[in-house]
Amino acid sequence: MGLLQTILATLVTLGVLVTIHEWGHYFVARLCGVKVLRFSVGFGKPLWMRTAKDGTEYAVAAIPLGGYVRMLDEREAPVPDHLKNQAFNNKSVLQRIAIVAAGPFVNLIFAVLAYWALFVSGVTVVKPVIGSIAPGSLAEVAGLQAGSEIVEIDGREVLAWEEVNLALAARVGETGSIEIRAGEPESGWLRSYTLPIDSWAVDLESESPLRALGLRPWQPEVEPRIGQLSEDGPAMRAGLRSDDLVLAINGVAVPNWMDLVGIVQASPNQLLQFEVLRADARLVLDVTPSLRPEPGSDQGYIGAGVVVPEWPDSMLRDLSQGPIDALVSGFSKTSQMIGLTLDSIKKMILGAISVKNLSGPITIAKVAGASAASGLESFISFLAYLSISLGVLNLLPIPMLDGGHLVYYIVELVRGRPVSEKVQMFGMRIGMALLFSLMALAMINDIARL
Asked: Which residues have a Cβ under 8 Å from the Cβ of 279 and sit 6 or more positions away?
């Protein structure tokens, strides 16, 4: 079921984003009087195709990693005289710029509308209250205290942990100081803290900027109560049942779920005696964790999930806005994510962020499946973020991408004549080499993460 959900979530994610991107090109092309020959979602052999009355072919192809809109163009094939006024290459340079820019622009508009829908419907977030401070960390040195709620990062208001992480992520690789304002907003007691950073290096693959500063979010105590069980897993074979409360393992008290996980992970292929409370009865069950190979060390697992605790209302915040305010927030959120994406690209080029953070289709599939499993709110938020990434990346001045074509057309607009075919072909080769190299690197990173 998990694999099927991941596949469906990936197909929906790519299908939606590719369709709206190509629809942007298609809509403006038709608006400018360009004849569209084919609108395809996906590459390769069409799995489904229909020809409309105007001759446009609509197709869904086998490889769902993109799409295209094929327009009438004299540079690709001879065009009859009576159709030359509908050819893309015969349109004004401003019309061509509009057609090419429409795809990425629609991706960004989609993100604004997705965030608008979330803000209008209302979202529940966890207040950014600090649970603990790591000893010796930047946060401890600055004097931050457990129990304080973070209200500002570098002068920007933050209402949830996601916003805190985004604000901190924008500072990775930088030198200077991070200004944090925290305290007890309800009582009015707030204090400013300065955390100096020097080429702040964070391995975003293994930790969040939040944890790198030494901040740990507050969370409810998670009791060691068994939730879901994997079929035929070590826990189920040993007789453990959902809702069993683990009291001790090998005679050692287990106060919370993380202690249980630590013992299990450290004991692959070792017999463990679980003392559990089931209803009013105490039972002792022999459980042998199976071996799971992990980078650096092997770990044990029993195939048991945790019962997710309920968060107290005092730690939750409901964010709901009217249509106008939600639209403003949608634009603001999209602008913030655009800035973060561009900043991350710049830092990756300069070496401040490792290229190991580059992700490909496998990671997208995993995140799509996980966000879909977390609910509609998480999935829509992921769609919005990925749509922004697609829009921004397509606007980069790289030949083969929309941004590369825009560069040629802007040069033509300034010079008054097109860029030569020779220069465009040379740029195309460079663009292909660069894109294929980035795709290969992203795939290598994906495989390494597996």
From this structure: none
